Records
---
Amino acid sequence: MMYEEVIRDFAQRTQKNLQAIEYLLKERKEGREVPEVFETTQLVNSTLGLLVFPQQQFVNDIPETPINELKKMGWPVPKACSAFPQVKNLNQLIRNLRNAIAHFNIEFIGDGQNQVSFIKVWNCRDNRKTWEAKLSVSDLQSITERFIELLLNK
């Protein structure tokens, strides 16, 4: 099937791929024989594609919804680490996540039982960190799902 509306179609296909991974994980937990999948790897790959590809065309359309409003709407907001500033709005959150993931400024943090449970992301300018935040895998998944909805409703 060809892409007709590239951003919309890419977002929908990414959403379906993430749902397929969730389905396979559920099947595995229920004892069915399914191929091994790596949900966090797929989530980061999907997030990278969603943030990088459409972001270049869509960057000016990402709302500057304040963080407090996002929280009320159910958006998880990565917690800024150390003395780094907290993002102020959705546009800044998406831009920071996009830059961190696109430049592979990412660290996977395990739960001690061979599972990735948190992700640390950061941005640099002139070899100095300008922002760093930590979020759970489920928070990244929620942000990704909400960004897909944002793209689909654009």
---
Amino acid sequence: MEITAAQFELIEHCLPRQRGNVSLTNLQVLNAILYVAEHGCKWRGLPKRFGNWHTIYTRMSRWAKSGVLDRTFEQLQRAQVVQIKIEAVSLDSTSVKVHPDGTGAPKKTVRRLSASPVVDGTPRSTSSRRTRARP
């Protein structure tokens, strides 16, 4: 799905005027965007004939933020050049382990006899000396 120069003239007024030293025309960028939309490839997967993928991505990102892409695609559909229905579907199969308290599991009810570790016989620190009775 590529737009010809004659079809591009119908929507050229929707795109910003190119100024300065640009390596890619708006027609080339638009055709690259349509290629990514049609094939669902990554930006780095664009064929070399479209030019530098990063330049195309940067320009597309600017156009999307400023509303240029919306106006352009509306005009393309009114002129019946392309018929695109863009939908986004996302699936996530991430699983996260949850602590048993977070799952609603019953809490343990067994309590220690004393809250003091000294009474239970455990040392207060690992460096404390204990004397043992020798038989």
---
Amino acid sequence: MIEIRKAHSKDAPIIALLGRITFTETFGHLFRDKNDLMNYYDKTFSVEKINQSIKKSENVFWLAFVNKLPVGYAKLKLNSKSEFIQSDSICQLQKIYVLNDFLSMKIGSELQTELFSEAKKSGFKHIWLSVLKTNDRAIRFYKKYGFSKVGQHNFSIGKENFDFKAMCKTLV
């Protein structure tokens, strides 16, 4: 049985752990120096950092469970401008991650549905995201739900430099 609910501060350890595991499953092979990966985790997926992020009014997190086991999470950032989209009514889909063993259950789609619903309810007209240029599976997923490419940018983690596509969707 799949359950999706909004996350709270008490869920920070779960999100921090899911963040580390899902990031490793998706991107770990791209790092030549595992210390760069560990340093990134310490900055991005520490329990304290996630807890602070959950408490910010512009962030909304969800957790996905299968038979009460946490298997994924999503994050929406409200009022998140993008250099690629001219709009004052825009938010950002910052994260949707699901453990590899549960991807076939379409949990990412369910998390995204919750995220879209919240964005619309909050009155946003556009939603944008960044996706690794070589992550074909994710790009197909986002295109399927109406996102299209609006730009590109780079991001560095340690010694690695990554190329990203910025994608946007109009919320109806």
